[in-house]
Amino acid sequence: MKQFAIRRLYSFFETNSEEIESCSFDEKLEALDEEMKALLAKYGLKAINHDTRFVPLAKMSAKKCDRCDNLMINRDKNPARFNKEDLWIDLDSEYNSIIWDGGTHEGEDLCMECLPIEHRWGYFSCGA
Ligand SMILES: [Zn+2]
């Protein structure tokens, strides 16, 4: 049975409103896209589409885990997470763990993997 294997690649960089408004990283990303297309073609893959979405850090209580650098949303500060908004639904930890759940423990903002199990957002207590 023939099938299409569609592969997604997620990556991120940190930016701010001024850079977004001035499009200061557009040239760099266009060069990256060209190199990615060539690299994918080398391995027999065809680039189809990409997009860039912006997650406002303070508004969403999003950050990098203080221990491991996983992207996370501090659920102690933002219990609603993305509110299941379509724009970000694929980033949700329920789907593919691009942005992990996390919380605050002893003054550190930690992702669900770094939190102790007994913390509400610790790995083994999520979804239970
Ligand atoms: Zn972590």
Strand order of the largest sheet: 1-2-3-4
Indicate the structural class: alpha+beta
Work out the number of β strands: 4
Number of helices: 3
- The gyration radius over C-alpha positions equals 17 Å
Shape: globular
Which ligands does the model contain, each kind named once? Answer: zinc ion
Beta-strand portion reads 5-15%
Biggest sheet details: 4 strands, mixed
Fraction in helix: 10-25%
Oligomer: single chain
Q: Helices and strands, in N-to-C order?
A: HHHEEEE
pLDDT average, as an integer?
Answer: 89
N-to-C CA distance: 37 Å
Q: Uncertain spans, ≥5 residues at pLDDT below 50?
A: none
> How many domains in all?
2
Description of the structure:
- The protein has 128 residues and is α+β, with helices and mostly antiparallel strands.
- It folds into two domains: 12-52, no CATH class; 57-125, no CATH class.
- Helix content is 21%, strand content 13%.
- The chain contains three helices and four strands.
- The chain has helices spanning 17-22, 26-42, 57-60; strands at 62-64, 71-74, 100-105, 108-111.
- It has a four-stranded mixed beta sheet with strand order 1-2-3-4.
- A hairpin with a 6-residue loop joins β1 and β2.
- The radius of gyration is 17 Å and the shape is globular.
- The relative contact order is 0.12.
- Residues 65, 67-68, 70, 110-111, 113-114 line the site of zinc ion.
